[in-house]
């Protein structure tokens, strides 16, 4: 039988690092990445035939669990008609209408094929709309790998120790201003300095790429008023939080209305989909109505739309997000109590279907500095011992965990028991 070890060795001869996206290589934790052969519900099976309870969920999209029968059927039905036309279809209208229904700040929406495309396009649009060059982002937030955004970035860039990637001309990077997440004073200072040069603020309303850090009270409200004062565009990057923190996205959970929203992950139900949308007057600035160019050969792909639309329909069930949040809460409380029993200092955060845990003595993690000062070595040991227990967590201390509707009480309680055994071994 071919094992993950064999496959990883072989992959490295033909694929840089053996993977098609860096964090998958386990650089953040060491060891051999699991090569997956199949996944159903809350569980994944690797090439060695071992089964895991999965809290990565393909990095967010699998909110209904893996290979949900109705999404699979929607894809199979769509395949019957053809794979791609490069011409408009009715499904794209249904998708746009559904997004508008669920996210009232979105008056018009454009489909793309990844989260990176969504944020890159939203920023170009904000720049074109305002006629300004500078953008403001937060240290440790990740918005995909477009040039302007790999400045003090989180996620894999942070895990690999390259928050500022080489290959980005200084002339581009100089337009990206960065300040600390959850620090409104710094935002106000930088706006006072650059006043009418800043096209937009882009923010993850719950930071999910430096572990999981919810906004402190007043932070998102403050961003809204600063943008109003300086006529900057407020972009919520909801690629991760969208349809996951709440049905109406994090903007509904925190009750703030951004000007533009970027979406990805859940909106595709596991297929490659991203989207950006918002105020009509801004969205009508993109081609073919407006002058800002943006396009895509496979944008609105009929198979991807079928999967995404079905996913959005299924998550529209009342109470579904409350249940998800209850699972995140139980997991966090269970981890915390188990760690306490083993004498391991641990802090947890959660919002809707996202959770994070930090090996630290501090009891409230709200900043990038705090997240990066946690005990990384302890995390690595914890990660590998959890794998041995059959629990697949994100292979980096700078990623969020995801629960799905397929995670039942059994899976959650098994995970907490496994964590307790592991905490005693740390
Ligand atoms: N924005 C956020 C908040 C993300 O979490 C991610 C990916 N994790 C992206 C953008 C980029 O999305 P993609 O990987 O689909 O390009």
From TrEMBL:
What is the protein name stated in its UniProt record? Glutamate-1-semialdehyde 2,1-aminomutase
Q: Which Pfam families match?
A: Aminotran_3
What EC number(s) are associated with this protein in UniProt? Answer: 5.4.3.8
Question: Which pathway is it part of?
Answer: Porphyrin-containing compound metabolism; protoporphyrin-IX biosynthesis; 5-aminolevulinate from L-glutamyl-tRNA(Glu): step 2/2
Organism field:
Pseudoalteromonas denitrificans DSM 6059
Which chemical reaction does it catalyze?
(S)-4-amino-5-oxopentanoate = 5-aminolevulinate
Q: What is one GO biological process annotated to this record?
A: protoporphyrinogen IX biosynthetic process
Reported cofactor(s): pyridoxal 5'-phosphate
Origin, by domain of life? Bacteria
**Family assignment from sequence similarity:** Belongs to the class-III pyridoxal-phosphate-dependent aminotransferase family. HemL subfamily.
Q: Where is the protein situated, by its record's location annotation?
A: Cytoplasm
The UniProt entry, under CDD domains, shows: OAT_like
- Which residues in this protein are found as N6-(pyridoxal phosphate)lysine? 265
Please give one Gene Ontology molecular function term for this protein.
pyridoxal phosphate binding
Name the GO cellular-component terms.
cytoplasm
Q: Which UniProt keywords apply?
A: Cytoplasm, Isomerase, Porphyrin biosynthesis, Pyridoxal phosphate
Tell me how this protein assembles. Homodimer.
Q: Which PANTHER family match?
A: GLUTAMATE-1-SEMIALDEHYDE 2,1-AMINOMUTASE, GLUTAMATE-1-SEMIALDEHYDE 2,1-AMINOMUTASE 1, CHLOROPLASTIC-RELATED
């Amino acid at each position: 039988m071919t094992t993950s070890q064999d496959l990883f060795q072989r992959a490295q001869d033909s694929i840089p690092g053996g993977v098609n996206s860096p964090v998958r290589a386990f650089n953040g934790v060491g060891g051999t990445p699991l090569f997956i052969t199949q996944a159903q519900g809350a569980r994944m099976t690797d090439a060695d035939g071992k089964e895991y309870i999965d809290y990565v969920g393909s990095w967010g999209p699998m909110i209904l669990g893996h290979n949900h029968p109705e999404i699979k059927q929607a894809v199979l039905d769509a395949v019957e008609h053809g794979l791609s036309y490069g011409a408009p279809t009715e499904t794209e209208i249904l998708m746009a209408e559904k997004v508008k229904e669920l996210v009232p700040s979105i008056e018009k929406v454009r489909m793309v094929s990844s989260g990176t495309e969504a944020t890159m396009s939203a920023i170009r649009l904000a720049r074109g709309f305002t006629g300004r060059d500078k953008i403001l982002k937060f240290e440790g937030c990740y918005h995909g790998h477009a040039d302007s955004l790999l400045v003090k970035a989180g996620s894999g860039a942070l895990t690999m120790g390259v928050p500022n990637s080489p290959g980005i001309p200084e002339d581009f990077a100089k337009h990206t201003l960065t300040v600390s997440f959850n620090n409104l004073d710094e935002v106000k200072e930088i706006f006072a300095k650059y006043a009418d040069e800043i096209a937009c603020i882009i923010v993850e309303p719950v930071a999910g790429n430096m572990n999981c850090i919810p906004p402190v009270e007043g932070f998102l409200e403050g961003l809204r008023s600063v943008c109003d004062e300086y006529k900057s565009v407020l972009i919520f990057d909801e690629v991760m939080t969208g349809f996951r923190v709440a049905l109406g996205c994090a903007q509904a959970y925190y009750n703030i209305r951004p000007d533009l929203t970027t979406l990805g992950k859940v909106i595709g139900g596991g297929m490659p989909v991203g989207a950006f949308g918002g105020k009509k007057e801004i969205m009508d600035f993109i081609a073919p109505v407006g002058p800002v160019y943006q396009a895509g050969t496979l944008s609105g792909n009929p198979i991807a739309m079928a999967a995404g639309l079905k996913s959005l329909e299924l998550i529209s069930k009342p109470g579904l997000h409350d249940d998800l949040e209850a699972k995140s809460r139980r997991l966090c409380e269970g981890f915390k109590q188990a760690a306490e029993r083993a004498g391991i200092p641990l802090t947890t955060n959660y919002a809707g279907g996202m959770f994070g845990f930090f090996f630290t003595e501090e009891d409230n993690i709200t900043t990038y500095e705090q997240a990066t000062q946690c005990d990384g070595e302890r995390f690595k040991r914890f990660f590998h011992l959890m794998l041995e227990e059959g629990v697949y967590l994100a292979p980096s201390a700078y990623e969020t965990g995801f629960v799905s509707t397929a995670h039942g009480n059994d899976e959650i309680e098994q995970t907490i028991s496994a964590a307790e055994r592991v905490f005693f071994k740390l």
